[in-house]
Amino acid sequence: MPYTPILATLGYVLSPDRGRVLMIHRNTREGDHHLGKYNGLGGKLEADEDVIKGMRREILEEAGIDCLDLNLRGTISWPGFGKHGEDWFGFVFVITRYAGTPLERNAEGTLEWVEAERILDLPLWEGDRHFLPLVFDADPRAFHGVMPYRDGRMQSWSYSRT
What we know:
By secondary structure, the chain is mainly β. It has one domain: Nucleoside Triphosphate Pyrophosphohydrolase. Helix content is about 15%, strand content about 40%. The protein contains 2 helices and 12 strands. Strands 1, 2, 3, 4, 5, 6, 7, 8, 9 and 12 form a 10-stranded mixed β-sheet that branches. A two-stranded antiparallel sheet has the order 10-11. The longest helix has 13 residues. The two termini are about 30 Å apart.
């Protein structure tokens, strides 16, 4: 069967002092596949977008800010991750400079500035604990990972760096 994932962006906005990260606490919509979890910002790419345009649009929609400096930290293939077992492929960014004041909430939940060293203490997807250290480490190389899911559970994790 051909691999036809949903393409998406996932962004982590850093505070000007780079000590905090803007996260969304998905606490608004009943039936949300992500309900109760913290996550970066982002979503599905539209057909007419490249990944940079898509990331900027998602951050503007979800946080009300304009991304000025973005750094692609890596990509992740998530076979079977979707609510109904759909495959996802994400482009993971760190946003180091933005314009505007972030919203306090959006339709999906509350936006919160979280101390960078505290992120792994939050209720996250199990798999996030594996790739988030790569997003925020000092290695300038991008990572490219595969994280299969089955029945809502991560099965394995592997990655390479370029």
